[in-house]
Specification:
6-stranded antiparallel sheet; 4-stranded antiparallel sheet; elongated; disordered N terminus; single chain; Lipoprotein; 242 residues; 3 helices; signal
Length: 242
């Protein structure tokens, strides 16, 4: 047989009465302002909506891309902010924002330390980049960054290994690199920018062979832009510094 303590029953009754009294007083206080209904409080703080971007979140972006007709060739785009505007969480619509990028190819059919002559050569002929803005109010699309050039004429190396197909980008002896590229200011309602890359390449079908196939290697890189009327802060750095 179970027993319940009279003291426990009395204590419970006392707590219940006190709680009811406090709720009654609280209710009077809520209706005290002219009898108006209280405004419900937000249960969670509002979260700022940020354009999803690996580049912004991690401070760098890298992709690995394969194309038809070039099995085990890995194309790698790498982007990162330069020291002039290194804090990607402070990239605002106003002011220029600077980034650098590289593009390289790896023959995964061979080991990293295998002789270079045993690897298929890949040549970069042209590099093209377009852009578009994403706005909060559906405003007019802007194009704050554009590039369309013969790769060997603009890469950081003034004397890249080149043939009629373009400049060599097969690792470890070749790579395309472009530094301190400026993204122009945009409208204040900008919340994101997409950079769309297209590389025109020629790929050797077999190591040491004379046959090549042409392909385009494409990649879109999203970048978040944060709401502010401030200008993105730009630090002075030596020319062509990273």
């Amino acid at each position: 047989m179970s027993h319940r303590s009279t003291r426990g029953r009395s204590a419970s009754r006392t707590v219940a009465l006190a709680l009811a009294a406090s709720l009654s007083l609280a209710g009077c206080g809520l209706l005290d302002n002219g009898g108006s209904e209280p405004t419900p409080a937000e249960t969670e703080p509002a979260l700022e909506r940020v354009y999803d971007s690996q580049f912004t979140r991690d401070g760098t972006f890298q992709s690995h891309i394969s194309v038809d007709g070039a099995q085990d060739i890995d194309f790698v785009y790498t982007l990162y902010p330069t020291k002039s505007t290194p804090r990607t969480n402070e990239w605002y619509p106003r002011g220029k924002k600077y980034f650098s990028f590289t593009f390289q190819a790896y023959d995964l059919a061979r080991d990293l330390r295998d002789p270079f002559r045993t690897k298929r050569k890949v040549y970069l002929q042209k590099i093209k980049v377009t852009s578009r803005t994403i706005t909060s109010g559906g405003g007019k699309t802007q194009k704050p960054y554009q590039l369309n050039a013969i790769a060997r004429n603009i890469t950081f190396d003034p004397e890249p290994l080149s043939t009629k197909y373009g400049m060599l980008i097969t690792s470890p002896k070749g790579a395309f690199e472009l530094r301190n590229q400026a993204i122009k200011p945009t409208s204040l309602d900008t919340r994101g920018i997409d950079l769309m890359f297209t590389a025109t390449v020629w790929i050797q079908t077999e190591a040491g062979g004379s046959q090549y196939v042409q392909r385009e290697v494409k990649q879109t890189v999203p970048i978040a832009i944060f709401e502010s009327e401030e200008k993105t802060e730009v630090a002075e750095i030596p020319i062509n510094a990273n």
